[in-house]
Amino acid sequence: MGRKPRVEFKGAIYHVIKRGNNRDYIFQGREDKESLLRYIAYAKEDGGFNLMGYVIMDNHYHLIIQTEDKPLSKIMQTVNNRYSKDYNKRHSRSDHVFGGRYKGILVLDDRYLFTLLRYIHHNPVRAKVSEKIAQYKWSSDHYYRKNINGLVSVDKILDMFSDDRRIALEEYVRFMEEDEPMVNKNAYDEYEAVDVIGASKDASKDDGELVLKLECEDNTLDGILRRAVPTAEEFERIKAGSRQRSLKDYKLSYVKLAIEQGYTFKEIGANIGVSGEAVNKMIRGA
Hints:
single chain; 2 domains; five-stranded mixed sheet; two-stranded antiparallel sheet; elongated
């Protein structure tokens, strides 16, 4: 049976996983891990994509990539081929370095970016090679904690926490230091043993092509707000910025529905005249 085609389009976000051949330890030392980062940087400069997160373990790596003009397949070909040649040369060998095809999991829903980033940053903790995320050098965590845009583009995810960068950084650290809510098996099922992250449970596959269920409802932010309130009066009061306590539950319903549709805290708040941080607090206090 032939391999299923990947869904690729400009602006798509992917969780990329690549393992060593036979799960060999191909990133054992500093030089190996630095070499991979060097070729990721080269491919980023050459192909134009956003690297939103990464972790390099001893026998595999994870990336979160948002493509631009060049397709994911070309990006990964550049990274993996160049690393393989360099690795074999430095270690005086000629075998395959990587095992099989890389896995590129399409992320359809931005709200999964928070937990996906935490999932890949938690890899060293789950593997018991580090007690805390921040102690592990070979991940993108330090770019986020230090608010550095360079190899890693941190703005999209940090802006989802808050418009205020100081608050966003505090929220990022708090979120990363929380225990993962899923046991290892469930986390693996959610973020690795799938073809799409954020797809409807009704999604199906037909002849190798992903067929996604399209919702007929009005899933604009105003459409979501109308479904969350009982009458047009409450809709208008919330849109006007009313802070009446009687509207609190309706606002919370709106926020939850909007998050399910993949809107960011910033977008959700702007539609009803509050900040992204206010939306975040609303969810945390629910």
